[in-house]
């Protein structure tokens, strides 16, 4: 059904022109530890080169985790793959319905109730009102917010809002799921429950691209990793190998253990053990 789902980019670059940069002293391209390189374009305007020459091809079933330093270009790449950003040079072709989950707060209105926000946020993620109404009871139960769902969202704590957002996000059936971390802010008990739902969401998604600084999370949701370094793809392969190259042997063996644990857990579930 979702065979047509694919993402392809060829030599895609994303530059951000910074017209108010104070950069008399900026003579040559600067490459710091964090952030993309800063240079100048043909019109001598200072630009942040957030992505450089990205060529990739993703198809149905691909689950890619993005790793890389702060400012490497992970979030920018997700925005390129969602169609929010057009490449400055090169091309990006996206086939399939995209559910961008970059900021759990987007599409939430503090003045309307939790219930109403569930519908609004669902619409933002490409669902219909009817689909959201059909899922309402199940989402409400997941959030454990009870009567609060009838109250305006401004009366919620941060974690309570995240529960609403997570409930909605994990209820949809996306063709292309683009996740940018920030999925924290909920208490540990709830996170356990949310992880299982997140895993199921990923299983029914066509393509997943997930940016995260948590290797454990990557190991759980993805089957390959892509290392983004100063706006370029440095490596794409097995999660363990990419983490070894990016972070070293200790982090890699932690990933290997996590993957083994998940596999054992899945085998246990398949045999009907545990809950
Ligand atoms: N709207 C913008 N305007 C100007 N520069 C931007 C903009 N968004 C991102 N950048 C720059 O693009 C580069 C890549 O940023 P991006 O947010 O994609 O990094 P990231 O890999 O997601 O980092 P992090 O791990 O910190 O989330 C950085 O140098 C950043 O300063
Ligand atoms: Mg980011």
Automatic annotation (TrEMBL):
Belongs to the ABC transporter superfamily. One of its GO terms (molecular function) is ATP hydrolysis activity. One of its GO terms (cellular component) is membrane. Pfam families: ABC_tran. This is ABC-2 type transport system ATP-binding protein. InterPro entries: AAA+_ATPase, ABC_transporter-like_ATP-bd, ABC_transpr_TagH-like, Bact_Polysacc_Export_ATP-bd, P-loop_NTPase. It comes from the Bacteria. SMART domains: AAA (SM00382). It comes from Rhodococcus tukisamuensis. Residues 26-255 form the ABC transporter domain. Keywords: ATP-binding, Nucleotide-binding, Transport.
